[in-house]
Design brief:
There is one protein chain. By secondary structure, this protein is mostly helical. The protein is about 70% helix and about 0% strand. The protein has five helices and no strands. Helix 1 crosses helix 2.
């Protein structure tokens, strides 16, 4: 029973603080949006200045359209992270399975092909001489 009383006391204490914190965020966000708008857009585009309440509405609209509640509220459900992890896991499984089924010659051929495509070294059809064609003055033609 005492545990419930302390929970109620915490709720009574923190509920007004949470409301005050949300009001403070709305006020500061509205002020920032209003000042940035009124400082930049009338001079750049010739648009009219906005009021505080218009800025609060614009602030809310941007939050709805472009994202959550800052760094604290990012990824509420974590769905994107879970999907990315599943995809990465499947890719890892398939690549390790394919790699395990390759012969050493196939693995080396794959490495050479990746080096040629990704710029990690000379392509598979060119022998490695230690210096590039540009450095030696040769050009392909």
């Amino acid at each position: 029973m005492m545990g419930n009383m302390s929970r109620k006391k915490k709720l009574i204490f923190f509920a007004p603080l949470a409301g005050l914190g949300m009001a403070l965020v709305i006020f500061i966000g509205g002020e920032i949006v209003m000042h940035l708008w009124n400082w930049n857009l009338p001079q750049i585009f010739g648009w009219r200045e906005i009021t505080f309440w218009q800025a609060v509405g614009l602030f809310a609209l941007c939050r709805i359209l472009f994202g959550g509640s800052g760094p604290i509220g990012r990824g509420h459900s974590g769905m994107r992270r879970r999907i990315r992890e599943r995809i990465d896991g499947r890719i890892d499984e398939r690549m390790s399975e394919r790699w395990g089924n390759m012969s050493p010659e196939e693995r080396e051929r794959f490495r050479q092909g990746m080096r040629g495509r990704c710029g990690w070294g000379p392509p598979a059809d060119e022998p490695s001489t230690g210096k590039s064609n540009e450095a030696s003055g040769e050009s392909k033609g």
